[in-house]
Amino acid sequence: MTTALATCAAMGLSTSYVGTIGSDRNGEQMREELHRRGIDTTYAIARNTANPFAVILLDDRYGERVVLWHRNPAVVLSSAEVDRKAVTIGRLLHVDDVDVAASIQAANLAVAAGKPVTSDIERTTDDVRALVDAVTIPIFAEHVPAELTGETNLPRALERLRRPYHSMLCVTLGARGALLLAGHEVIHEPGISVQTLDTTGAGDIFRGAFICALLRGDQPRDILHFANAAAAISCTKLGAMNSVPAIEEVRAIA
Hints:
Layout lengths: L1 H9 L4 E2 L3 E2 L3 H12 L2 E2 L4 E2 L6 E6 L6 E6 L13 H5 L4 E4 L3 H13 L4 E4 L5 H9 L4 E2 L3 H6 L4 H8 L6 E5 L5 E5 L2 E5 L12 H14 L4 H15 L12 H7 L1
Parallel strand pairs: 1-3, 2-4, 7-8, 9-10
Antiparallel strand pairs: 5-6, 10-11, 11-12
């Protein structure tokens, strides 16, 4: 989530983080990094507990990684804590599948206010179905549509998941690019070949670039191409936030 925000900020958008931040040194570093990148934390909720942290194991042959992370239940954001102003003040709301009840509440408030809502959906638990239904532009990890529907054909799976208020549905495909269902058109935009160093953060950077292109009014295929380019560049760098590309880098290959 924060890497997607950092991508939006790097591309000139005003951004705000709505969520919890722990009180330990990891939490302090998170808040400092958000500020350094121009991300507003006015609506962040301080928790007197350890901030979530992750250990990332990187395969230096292929750039693939395994993420080991721990999240103290005390940092969970409840639906009752969602501030209506915080989630409706912007042009767009982006939610993920970590605190699902809070994300659903936030999405419902934003949609009621006429705002588009994008998502980062990687899990397939029963409560995630309600989150898919709550947003207007669901963006899925590759395995999710088939696991939610039982349909292995991606376009047909997206058709099953689509609701009348979904303007688009997107699936990220890693090195193979991304697929988008826009109206009755199925758009597959191939990935951009790069020398991969680290794939950490590529999905979040794809989503941040997707949001940037969406808000400036790009056509669906152009949105995918721009987001693919941003994700590809990120794979040539180490780390998550440290691999966020500048908009000029993306334009150079998009």
